[in-house]
Amino acid sequence: MTEPVRATCHCGAVELRVSLTDGLATARRCDCSFCRRRGAAAVTAPLDGVTVVRGADKLTVYQFGTMTAVHYFCSICGNYTHHRRRSNPNEYGVNMGAIDGVNPAEHEPIRWSDGVNHSSDRLD
Q: What is the pTM of this model?
C-alpha cells in the first residue's frame, strides 16, 4: 500500500487522502482511557500524509488530558477518522476501518500500545 489511499467517515461527508508510512504494517490499538473505549485500530501517516479532500467543515475535534493528541470526528455521523498522536505529534493515526477496502478483522491480531503508562504522563 504505497500509493495514497482513500478514507471516509461512515456517512461520506468527510474524505481523506492518506499516504501511509508503512502500509497496514503499523496497525495498532491503544489502551488509554479514550482509545480503549473507541477500540479502533489505527495506521500511521506523517503529518503531511493526510489531506482532507472533502468535509473539513464537518470535522470536529476532541482533546483531553495533556491536550497533545487531537482526535478528529465527523460531526454528522460521529465516525472517528484520524488523530494527531500523543506518542508522536509528528504523526497521524488513521482509522484503519475508514480506509476503502480494509476490514481490520482480516488483519488480527492487531498489537496494542500502552497508552495507560504513557511517558508524557509521568511526573519524574
A: 0.88
